[in-house]
Amino acid sequence: MTQHDLPEPGIRVLCAGPLALLQDSGRFGVRHLGVTQGGPADLYSWAWANHLTGNLWGSANLEITFGGLKLVAVRDLEIAITGADLGATIEHKPVPLWQRTIWKAGDTLTFAAPVSGLRAYLAVCGGFAAEPVLGSVACVTREELGGFEGNGAKLATGDELSVNRSGSGQQLANAPTEAPKDVLPDFSQPAVLDLLPGAQIASFTGRSLFDAFNTWWQVDDRADRMGVRLRGPTLNCKINTLISEGISLGSVQVPPDGQPIILLNDRQTIGGYPRLGALSPLSASRLAQCLPREPVRLIARGSDAVLKEHRMFRAVFHSEPV
């Protein structure tokens, strides 16, 4: 690595906001140690932010939840902001979302409050720089792993964020400067979520299965990167006890109160509640953008259709599914 390739300070945090985390694609191959996946709650928006800035799949960017973040550029940067509309401005001028833009040294980038969606993603050309922990920089605060310091800390006022100066000029030249309109999600519309039936679904009562897929559920206030609780009709399962087993992204657990919990990136590695199945990764991404009290609907889908859709998504970024 030459001196030119070394990361340099690129951004200073003026106001940290409630929750801003460094996220690459996640931490894999370590769940046998009890270590969770981490990574972007909205994989779809995270991927497009990196794509627009010419970064390779897996590059780290910032996941900004609820806004309230204020940053100043230490040097000129090319950036892209995707995901939720958090009222982002540079020097009080709105930042165009889902496209590459210039952030001049000394200018202040501010994220206000959610206009549509919950989580925004900020990528910079070259990518953010941090030392991996267990093969990833994904920040999981509960486990004190990842992030800029390696200890799982969220951004704090006064932090200096390092940015890689070098990058593939060819890759940036081949990257789109703006996402096509047909890929832009509309977070103002109610979320319809694909669920792959499985696990203990046959042990739920017929009435519960009818309610599960024919009800507009409501996102509960108890929602974070670990999981999202839904409110609606009570689901009943014939299973009284269950040996804990591995939990995948998007798993839909039903605890004794009958209200589903959909588990996301910072979930526990095992669980003992019966499950209806699991959301597709893209539907888990959509759920991660839902604010409390928003309606969601579960739709049963087959694995072949969901896998085909996911492969088409990954192919845009020249990345094979894992």
Automatic annotation (TrEMBL):
Q: Which residue ranges does UniProt annotate as crossing the membrane?
A: none
Q: Which residues form the Carboxyltransferase domain?
A: 32-317
| Highest taxon of the lineage | Bacteria
Q: Which InterPro entries match?
A: CT_A_B (IPR003778), PxpC (IPR052708)
Q: Which UniProt keywords apply?
A: ATP-binding, Hydrolase, Nucleotide-binding
Pfam families according to UniProt: CT_A_B
Protein's UniProt name: Biotin-dependent carboxyltransferase family protein
Q: The organism's lineage?
A: Bacteria, Pseudomonadati, Pseudomonadota, Gammaproteobacteria, Pseudomonadales
